[in-house]
Every structure is written in structure tokens, then in C-alpha cells.
Amino acid sequence: MSGLPRSSHALVTGGGRGIGREIAATLARAGATVTVLGRNRATLDDAIASGAAHFAGVADVADQAAVSAAIAEAAARQPIDMLIANAGIAESAPFGKSDAALFRRMMDVNFMGVVHTIQAALPSMRERSYGRIVAIGSLTAVEPHASLGAYVTFKSALATLVRTVALENKDAGLTANLILPGTMDTPANRKAMPAADPLKWVQPGAVADVALLLTEDRAAQVTGTVIPIDGTNV
Rounded to an integer, what is the distance from CA 129 to the centroid of its chain? Predict the structure, then answer.
């Protein structure tokens, strides 16, 4: 059976802009009530104004207490059925020049941020024997790039985390899957790589469509998967 469950509530981290906002808008168009979580109140409010989301919560995913409070507030409004763990940051530096602070930033947001988010939403999902967890990683997790050692380290760890969550919660009717996009066609990437051909990059809508599929009823038996989306192969 295709489509979202009736009266679904989706929470999207990093949902105020970029791919997170695209995912939020796609879920909203499919009929879900969408809560976006992020650090910038202005971008979150804009997502609501544009129709990409219905509610918003301000929290840095690296802050466990803030994430727990924001997710509890969202769940009190309506139980969370789908969690899209999208928030992330990227910084580049050769390994020899990557200090502990850089590794810490990559770990706190790209790995622990997902840990905090899933752990906050998981108990309620298990109690209701229903939940769809989708994490957005990076194709670099399986195809490392020079000068992205700190970033890749924790994106790789994320794959193991999501597969473990899937394994531990399969008995409770939950699914957990990971999407690995290649270079995204975003304004920031176009600015950073002006000589590249953005037509070969991954379109945000492609990632959002896969995220939607993984939250639908027809994907109820899909769990523990790692799905690469590499625009250069199109």
C-alpha cells in the first residue's frame, strides 16, 4: 500500500533550509503535519510561511537537552511518526591540519546530533509500535575525499548507527534507513564550485522523493538500508 499513514506527523531536523526544507515541503504536500527543527528562527518561520512546514522548534542538534525538549514539545502536540535526521555541517581541511576542535564539531553535529534526535523520538515510537526513521548522510561515507577526513569519519559512523537502530527496533514495527547523497545542487555548492557542472549534481527533490518513499506504508519492510544517490551517474 502506498501513501503516508493518515494524520502522520513528521519531524525534520535542519528543516529550515536546503535539503531539509525540500524534504519538509515534500512531506507536507503528501499530507503529513510537519515540524521543522533548526537553529535559526527566521529560516524556520519562513519555512512555515512558505507552506513547507506547520510548526517549528529551535534547537541545536548538538545540544541534547535542547533537542529532547523540542521533540517532547512537538510530540505533545501530536505523536511523531516519522523522523528525518537531516541536520549536518561540513568543513574541509587536510588531515594533518585537522585539529581536535574540527573533529569535535563534526562529531557533535553529524553524529551525536543524530544520536540525540533518534534517542529523543525512539521511546514513543516503540510504545506505539510504529516509526519511520530516515537519516541523511553523505556519499563520502563510502567514497572518502581528500581534506574531508573529519567530516567523512562521522558520516561513516552514521551508517553503522542507523543500521544498528534498524536491527534493534525491527521487532517493534520501526524502520531506520540512511540516504547518502552525492554533491548537492545548492546555492552554497554553486558558489563554492563555480567551474563545476551543477546538472551532474544531486537535485534536492530526488533526495526528498526517496525520503518520502521510505516513510510510506509500502516501505514498511525496508529497514537497515543504505541508499546512495549519485547525480554524476545520471
Answer: 22
